[in-house]
User: Fold these one by one.
Assistant:
Number 1:
Amino acid sequence: MTTSNKIRKYHPDRAAHISHELIEKHRYKLGIYAQKLLFALAQNLDTTADLFPEWHINITDLFRYLNLSERNNDRYDIVRNAIREIGNNPIEYRISAKKWGAWWWLSRMQFDAENSNYVTIKFSDDARQFLLQLNQFATLETRYYIDLSSQYAMWLYTQFKNKYKMAGGVWEVSLDRLREITYTDQSPAYDPLRNKNANSNFLKYVIGIESVGRGSAKVWRERRDVNREGMEVPAGTLAEINLHTDLLVEALPLKTGRTYDRVRFTIRLKAGLYKSPKQIEAERESAVRRARVSGFHTISIAHAMEMAREAGMSVDAYLKLAGYTRHKNGKTAYKKI
């Protein structure tokens, strides 16, 4: 018998448990919103026989989870397109030319604002049976991936969390495998056979690292960009993961002969992040209280993101509680003193 269950309300401290097998062996090419939505659904996985036959999700909760404010006139289309993207991109694997397969995630999606504020999502029976068999989960907490803004960061963060648990924090992987994970294996810009600078481009623009210095003084670091104030700041995939998530990741390209062909990632967990609910709430209240009484008329969104992370909430929730309003330029927020 088919039953219907409402999704549990979004909470920044709830974790999505993503299978090691799903991360390691399968590919599912999803954009940033679709990936985050899939993780939200994963928060509600149940290992019983009646695994999510049909879900009804309040669309307001989806807007809040995806940080889509009422000022965003495209928010309904963003949610619809994210769900469609999950439905249109199967879980797939390829072991060899003679052994491959795929499962489609969804069998139904529906929303009618005139009759209900709930989105209906139903997983296919094939996906249901596949997901029931998965084990060895990596744990992803919403508050540590929700502010990631690039697909590369989402895909690699999932891999890093998995490798931290399964491989002890050191992951050596070929550039070819990384191109598969980031869906850049068909891009001419990152194909060594079509572009002599493919590997250096990939390291800089996909992984987000660059080399400085020469000879024995040469070192690798997070990519740097120049901001509007003319200052060099960390930018790119690795910088984003290190800023927003619970991980600190260093990357060192390695050579075979004279060619860089693999990367060794060293993955560490940031200290002091996993605290009791009382500690989290006390720090959240403290951060918001300091912002409310501060003399700052304007703050940068980057600074607000740092404060929001300290408070354990989204940047929009932090700005609202602290009395700030986003400026139209998208770079700063202001409040009346």
Number 2:
Amino acid sequence: YVGTGYDGTNYKNDFWEYNPANNTWSQIENFPGTARVDAFAFSIENKGYVGTGYDGDYNQDFWEYNTNTSEWTQKANFGGEPLCKATAVALNGNGYVFCGANPPFKDNTFEYNPTTNQWTEKTNFPNGARRYATSFVVNDLAYIGTGYKTNGYTKDLWIFDININIIV
């Protein structure tokens, strides 16, 4: 799934689904929030989640897309300040959002629980606030790193272990 963005003139709210079996893209239901760029996203089971971003203002809204019903549902607003350029992953049935900017750059970590529809602030990112970080999951550990800090681009990589709520 790919959606939202900016084409150099307009913010976008269209969303697309890729079918690898026949190598085709199909447009799905448009994102119902304002058209935007630099939102974060993650998926849990058969649902996709999209939040925050920038549309001329920094956003705090958060949405769930159900792939079974092709419907969007607004969920609890993101737990931190409105922001954009954050990175996110899903681990053990919850979503995690790291860093971002509004400005200034952020070093926060937030957990989203889809069962309770609640956000919880977790441990801060240890090596400074940043935007445009990247993240991925391997063996139930989230890896977060790189990005842009106020003094330039970074080359660091950190591990977030949700079992002990620590980034090392």
Number 3:
Amino acid sequence: PTKRRILEWCCGPDSKIGNHPCTRRGCEVLRITEKEDATREATVKQAKAFVVQPRCLLFSSMPCTGGSPWQRINVKKPGGYANLRRHRKLFNALWENFEIVARHAHAAGNFVAIEWPKGCSYWLLPKVKKCCADLGLESVDFHGCMFGLKSVYNGKLIMKPWRIFTNSPELLKGFQGHTCCGHGEHAPGAGKDTKLTENYTDSMFDLIHKCWKKQASKPDTSTTA
């Protein structure tokens, strides 16, 4: 099996990327969770040491609450502006350190991927756009319903629009063509489903690992090749 690595930036402690069968077949995964605290200098140091190793993918799923379209409604609620400021303050700290690690990975010839919902306003931030351009990241859009994302209320598919920016040709190719093919009625993805849609489905985890294995297996796997 091809020895390869994934560093998950801001994931849950039980992320299925790290629990995937591929982790027992040649893929080493390092999780940076809330416990490790990606705002800490020591965590950045650990991440930098990991992402310079051969065949490494830095996969980020940073909290996007502060960039959600729902904030237009939430800010009107009591304490809404204070909550929004807290979310964006945390994002700024996480992004600053992520960019340090991402540029370190890119300089070593490794790969970077950032995942947020398509409608997240963070994509429009100048610092995010500049980083994506500097690292040569391109985008691919897809829908949750194409990966079996379902409502806990009625089992209907949820057409959550996701976006990934990456410099991995195999990830871009793998997620292309996964926009809704016409499932009819979808669940709105509200209430309990809102939290649910922060997580990926099993088929998404499978595709991420499949694409990354294919990318890492290429003799010219380095971005600087």
